[in-house]
Structures are given as C-alpha cells and as structure tokens.
Design brief:
five-stranded antiparallel beta sheet; 3 helices; 5 strands
C-alpha cells in the first residue's frame, strides 16, 4: 500500500507540552543525522520507553532525517518525537522542499548501498505517511510505532 493512501498522521498528545512532544531544528547537513538520533533516543529514555521501541524509533528518525538531507534542497529540517493519545510513539521529519512531488519509488539492487530507508520505515512502523508540512511548506514524513514503557 502506498504511504499516500494511509490515514493522516496520529495526533500528538499535549501539542504544546514538551513533556510529551520533543521538537528539534537542525541544519540539513550529514552530522545532523547523529544529532537527531541522540536527541530522540535521550527523549525516549526520559519517557522510559523499552529498548526495542527506542531502537526502532532511533532507526526511523535516522532514515527520515537522512532522506530529508539527501533528497531535498532544505537548509534546515525539523524533527519531532511525541506520544499519541492512542499509545504510539510518533516520529516526523519536516523539510523545506516546496516542489510538489511525491516520494519517488526506489528499487535498490542487492549490491546498492542506499535506497532502502523507506522500506525499513514501512517494515518497522505500525503506520507511516507523507503530508505537506504546515510548519515548513515542504514535506512532513511521519511514522508511528507502538509504545512500550520499559519495566
């Protein structure tokens, strides 16, 4: 199923509260991928998410951030991690790419080193999609996965 036919992004809890929503603005450079991973990982630790949920969310933010940096002309990106009312961890990355285009399908060959990011997101996330960002005017790529607090 295409991500464009999926339901809209889950709504975050406490949209203005930093206790349940964490935003990070970064320059669109390679080192920002690591910064996004660390920041989201630390926030999920504060929220006492399980190691599995943390690892999956960090991988998702890494893939979405990498795509925003590599495939758009954005100078800055926004990353978000939050908890939803239906018990999901919600990750989204906003770019500033104002070109109206959809994400191109990618068929990575067995020897290709790149091109599997959205396939990973699709396999890991419970749901994911792409919308126009109301914050940047570019793309907002989001993913949600079940939240399991650690014991």
């Amino acid at each position: 199923m295409s991500p464009h036919t999926r339901p809209p992004a889950p709504q975050l809890l406490d949209g203005t509260s930093t206790r349940r929503v964490h935003w990070l603005e970064l320059p669109a450079v390679g080192t920002s991928v690591g910064a996004a991973r660390r920041s989201v990982g630390q926030r999920l630790d504060l929220w006492r998410m399980s190691d599995d949920v943390r690892a999956d969310a960090v991988l998702i933010v890494s893939e979405l951030t990498t795509n925003a940096i590599r495939h758009t002309s954005s100078e800055r990106i926004l990353c978000c991690a939050g908890l939803t009312s239906d018990g999901l961890v919600h990750i989204e990355v906003h770019d500033h790419d104002v070109a109206t285009r959809s994400l191109p399908p990618r068929c990575a060959g067995p020897d290709d080193e790149n091109g599997r990011g959205l396939l990973l997101v699709q396999e890991i996330a419970d749901k994911w999609g792409v919308e126009r960002s109301l914050l940047t005017g570019g793309n907002a790529v989001w993913a949600a996965l079940g939240a399991e607090p650690s014991a």
